[in-house]
Amino acid sequence: MNFEGKVTISTGAASGMGLLFAQSFASLGGNAVLCDVNENVLKEKVCEINAKGKGKAIGVVCDVRDYNQVCIARDKAVEAFGTIDVMVNFAGGTAVRIQNVDREKYPEFPDVPIDVYDWGIDVNLKGPFYFSHAVLKQMREQKSGLIINIGSITGAEGDGYGIDYPTSKAGLMYGLTKSIAQYGSKYGIRCVCVSPGPVLTRAAMANMKTLLGRAAEPQEIVDLCLFLASDKGQFINGENIMIDGGRNAMNRCW
Questions:
Q1: Could you tell me if residue 253 is inside a domain?
Q2: Is 159 part of a structural domain of the chain?
Q3: Alpha-carbon Rg of the chain, whole angstroms?
Q4: pLDDT at 109 over 70
Q5: Is 174 a catalytic residue?
Q6: pTM here?
Q7: Dihedral of alpha carbons 186, 187, 188, 193, sign
Q8: Number of Cβ atoms within 10 Å of the Cβ of 222
């Protein structure tokens, strides 16, 4: 794969798969715009990518819940590199976990303060929606581009407590991805959703069962995203691709 002259925006890019994708894209000659709310770590990671002397990187502090900040990130990408070829919406997470909700104090879904779930829906669904809306202006002008949404096996399975997460991910996997693919087709723009099963971005993921008996390495998910962005993946559009070790095919007894 060769991404020389290509430009990607990756969200949640100060860590995890968002960072790994930006690093991998740059290592293959592409230029990367890393977006995250963690300014100090973001600067550090951008410097590391630039020190390798292959693709270039810039960092943009951006809260995906704020449309104005999203538009600034888009504009800085175009100002720095001229185009936006690939947009990958990695930023996300289950609100009840990230906000450390006390399950003894808030034992069931109706007990959890609604602002917790607001945060989850804003980050996991509205964030990708905002970025798609913003970057499509540029992609429409250049008549090319790819948006990759990151779904989750949880979007197919559901979750009786962290309900914001499967609700948001299902929206990405089916509604947003297919709709953008329909809109973008006349401008040469594709949209694909990649939906992982358990990924070893944190140790607890090793406890989720799959038919292969393991969780994915983060690089396995990133490699699929790179394939979709490469010349080899150009005929894939409007689809949700499960990369879950067969978890969605398992025979479950609840």
A1: no
A2: yes
A3: 18
A4: yes
A5: no
A6: 0.96
A7: negative
A8: 24
Complete DSSP assignment for 72-91: HHHHHHHHHHS---EEEE--
Per the structure, the count of domains in the chain is: 1
67 touches 134 (CB < 8 A): yes
Q: Please report the sign of the dihedral spanned by the C-alpha atoms of residue 5, residue 6, residue 11, residue 17.
A: negative
> How does pLDDT run across 181-238, given as a tens digit for each residue?
999 999 999 999 999 999 999 888 898 999 999 999 999 999 999 999 999 999 999 9
Quickly tell me which residue has 């449309």 as its tokens. Answer: 67
pLDDT in tens, 79-104: 999 999 999 999 999 999 999 999 99
Residue 2 covered by a domain: no
Assigned domain for 254 exists: no
- Burial of residue 177 (number of CB atoms within 10 Å: 0-12, 13-18, 19+): buried
Average pLDDT, the chain: 96
Task: Name the catalytic one among 165, 174, 183, 187.
Answer: 165
Domain limits for position 230: 7-248
CATH of the domain at 42: 3.40.50.720
* Spatial distance between the Cα atoms of 90 and 199, rounded to a whole number of angstroms: 13
d(CA 143, CA 68): 24
